[in-house]
Fold each of these.
Amino acid sequence: MNGPLSRVLAATAVLLSALSVPAATGSAEARPAELTAACPTTGWVSQHFHSGHNGVDIANDVGTPIYAVGDGEVTISGYTGDYGQWIRVLHPDGRISEYGHMSRRDVSVGDHVVAGQQIALMGAEGTNVDGSHLHLRIWGDRSTSYGIDPEAYLAERGVVLPCTPGSGPRPKPPVYPAESGRVVSARSADGRLEVFVAGADGVHHAWQQEVNGNWSAWEPLGGPGNAELAIAPDADGRLEMFALSGSTFQHRWQLSPSGGWSNWETFGGGGRDTAAGVNADGRIEVYASGTAGLFHRYQLVPNGGWSQWEATGGGPADSRVEMEKSPDGRLEVFALGADTFQHAYQTAPSGGWSNWETFGGGGHDLTVDHNADGRLEVFASGPTGVFHKYQTNAASWSGWEGTGGPADAQLSSERTPDGRVEVFAMNGSTAMHTWQRAVNGAYGDWNAFGGGGTEVTAVTNADGRMEVFGTNHTGTFHKWQTGFSTWSEWAWLNSTAGPTQG
């Protein structure tokens, strides 16, 4: 990376605090946090775990609320024939809880849930279902084909079935920022993906016509040409789009969740790059870089008006910017310039910001993601390939480590359905990807992913399958998982070339 990554200074510790775990039913108050759980639902056990039944059935009326049994990340939220609607949650200890036959799902892939948070409503969907019930499975090891007894798992953590779910408000799970760039994508409130591509003639837009489904034709939106884009959800579920060019900054927003869009409105002056994230209280916060460093602007109330632009006390000039979120809801900003890499973080959820701190040397592009256990992972590209740096615990970082990969690449990252981080790198001649071989673990070798291009971004469908968008001088392509370990070929988004980038 222009050499500086090999000379990186040790990053100052990031002040993270661990998530608190709500008390479980029974005598869990005396148990360590990792051995607490929450009651999954109200009802009676209609079938226990045994050699012919991989889980426990808890029966009750259609529409009975279902709750996460522990903190974790949603890795599957979709539909399958046997289960109907189903959900998987990966927990920090590596265990997986699985919920089937629901009539409604309230969480999406990538959401972080807390123990006792409502995630679905009970139903009777799927094949061979005799009445409304929750089928709950607990997986202890992904390499096995059979789960462990959910009743024993819950009892060890203080919950004995049948049980009574906790009452009262639950902490709102973090909303992780979407990746910024000249191609961005996010899910509307109804689960359909939307994608925006910046071209010389302005911003272009396409959307899934049904959840996990086919795509609309491209729609030109106008706005600034050759812009850097960012997207974030308002507290009420409406997406908001930000477009920054060298001379102007504009934004537009959905008029209703999953609905149509406003016209463009002025948001500020020009700059180099932008990123957007959501505060713990639901207010969007926007960062932008320019010749004088980093500035930010934020909503004064959720879904409401905006502050004025404020200087942040420095940061690398004309830097590439990304945001991520710690498990306790604090935003963190990473800014990569040609000669230096710096970061800043909120000192409290929805609160003020730290000073800028040295994070490494300069480079070409960056991507930031989070492990299944909440630790942040940062990747940066330069002339000798891709490097990464990761939190070793809640208060310290590793040194920079080389991973190989293409030189001076555009980077993007997402998480697989079981919570492993996958990284995509594209330069003018090649596209490659690498992924964690185990949850929270080391990465494998880089593998070919396609030809060269100018921009890349990765996102997940509502059913957990990843979809990757890439651009070049001929148009915009996408490639998607046909299963959870197989990929389609690259193809036009909707049988047309779409917007191009030089």
Amino acid sequence: MEIILKEDIIGLGYKNDIVNVKSGYGRNYLIPTGKGVIASSSAKKQLAENLKQQASKLAALKAEAEKKAAQLEGVELVIETKVSATGVTYGSVNAATVVEELAKRGIEIDRKIVTMRDMKKVGTSEATVHFHKEVEVKVPVTVVAENQPAPAVEEAPVEQPVEASVAEEETPAAE
């Protein structure tokens, strides 16, 4: 059964996509909740006309999504959590935890656009943030035990203060 989606559904498709779904899923969930309509020939023509009229609006939405994605470039999350002696976490690190950690860094995003597998052990994983149909960002997530040293992360700004301290040492010697 072909359905035209009226809103983004992660794992199925994005707004205005034509997707094939099982008949029961379409008739019993998507259509009654207003998340989709049957893709008849007249509905497809209407969709094509709407897309033509909204082309500039869609381009603006994509540009906005790319700006948001630029904020996440190079972001790596290290999440500290309570861990048992075997390395298994108490609870799990999931998309909601990632969103909270990003909010602490001043990056506000909706929890519904983040997908990742729940992490129940110490280690590294990836969270995918779906800003737009064509704009997705993968954010590396590292889970470490509380009260343990964080994994070493290469930082370029560390080199600059070292050079500045060398310059400060030379200044008193010159006087």
Amino acid sequence: MRKNTLKILCLLFSLTALAQQQKTKKEFTTKGKKVTVYTTAEDLNLRLSTTDNLTFSESKQPLETETSVFVEPSKKFQTFMGIGGAITDASAEIFAKLSKEKQTEFLNAYYDKQKGIGYSLLRTTIQSSDFSSGSYSYIEEGDKDLKTFSIDHDRQFRIPLIKQAIKTAGGKLTTYVAPWSPNAFMKSNKNVLKGGKLLPEYYQTWADFYAKFIKAYEKEGIPIWGTSTQNEPMAVQTWESCIYSAEDERDFIKNFLGPTLKREKLGNVKIIAWDHNRDLMNYRANVIYSDPEASKYVWGMGFHWYENWSGGASMFDNVAKVNEAYPNKKLLFTEGCVEKFDAKKYQFWANGERYGISMINDFNNGTAGWTDWNILLDQNGGPNHVGNFCFAPIHADTTTGNLIYTPSYYYIGHFSKFIRLNAVRVNTAVSRSALLSTSFLNADGTMATIVMNQSEKELIYNLIIGAEKTVVRIPAHAIQTLVY
């Protein structure tokens, strides 16, 4: 008996020692590492360009007159789940008009990790949205039993593009979906447009609809990772929209959507609550997460960036407050785009900077993934069947067949190309407000630190990690990724 006890103790000691060795081995160090700097800048011909190869040297207390970025690798936070964009009907319809050569260029630009910016997330719609050539449904109007359900509409443009995107990305894209509106007969206003509410007698019919859609897409070879309850549930729009109060969404998830997905053996499909702007996300989180029966079905909260419609600033702190209050729930940026399309502003630099500011703040506030809106639109900012024309990171001029890359594409790329799946965010801070920064430690041991200069002048800053530093030059209105 004593021998067995001794053997067990020895084994436990060995395992503990091995675990400690592995932990020590995995601790991040700058010793012997080079820093590769990639830069995109407004007034220079730099677009994700390699601009420097630097080394680390000894660091001491920085002066107040110096500008510094501080990275503390031992302080770790959320795990990164990816960056991507939405494949809407509009994007798929425009893609189909491109030449084969331009289609390949486009797919590589987004989804190839070496040739492009390595997108790993994908959002798409359940039925039509404003970014469709017209409203449509997967069932005949009035079919409460869903006997006529078919996704044939999506097989023409959207499903082929999704399949090509997945293939270009190496066989996997984390794909999630969202509905814009139930059918007219299920709603209080008898219209898929202009808000209205889902009638209680159709709660179960609508929950069954999600399950049918998810199974139909999975049958096409497109695994669905998650679904939100409703896109923008507090906005009465001229396009497809449906209103849910926080209490409505809580009860729909608790009594219908959650149990239905579980019953249909789709319990692994994540449910994303809210899927609307940062302004009201705290109330929605409080209502849904305080109900254990609803909360158990919810993976986390999705949010958008359009709260500035009221004339105010972006409410980044609300994301941090939800993360602080509910640390066991995830956060996912599910939609953002630059509104009010104007072809004269294809290269308007502030559009790209809006992405950089949002992404850095959202990640620093606990967001796990970040999803842009349409991956592709035409020279009119559409198609959009209600005239809600917007910008995309890439536009296609269907009259010339050319692709137009906007600053937003490159700003997103400074994150998506260098932060890999399952990276972990680490503590990062700046000493001057002209700079913004975030850092992620990749699973292969490399660090990606993104630094953005919002000012009108070139800056020199210290990148300080522990007792070592390197000195970096960043142009005015530029973004950099430092890989080391």
Amino acid sequence: MSYCAAIEGMQPESRRELHKRYHDNHYGFPIHDDNELFGRLVMEINQAGLSWETILKKEEGFRKAYDDFDIQKVASYAESDRERLLNDPAIIRNKLKVNAAIENAKTIVELQKEFGSFEKWLEHHHPKTLPEWMKLFKKTFKFTGGEIVNEFLMSIGYLKGSHAENCPVYDEVLKHDPMWNKI
């Protein structure tokens, strides 16, 4: 069952609205801001082993804990910041995931120096198949397994599949010219 169809049957209404807000306004839409791209990567990494609903409920906590996903700030985090994050109940307190966020921010800073932006690095490697993307992410970033890479790239419009073609949001996503439509 697609995410689009699953949302309609979710109960209670507050749960359905949480998912619907993400589905209708964010999922699959291209992101052109490096900090937001980084934020989506952090959220996808943190979802590993947990439900997406848990991550959606903690999104504001993630934003606050990680300085609104400011790549430069996160890349400069010290050991005291790692400890702060590991003690913050508003986020997922997993050492591997916290370390991945900080190390991936440092990597993105280097990619920005070389390519001009994280988005331009992604564009430079487009198009790729999912296995090719997985290999690239595994070589470049920390804690980026296949499902994380797939969901990250679908959620930002690089891979097709975020919405069923009969979903009204599918046509909205197309209006924003997702990268998967440029193949």
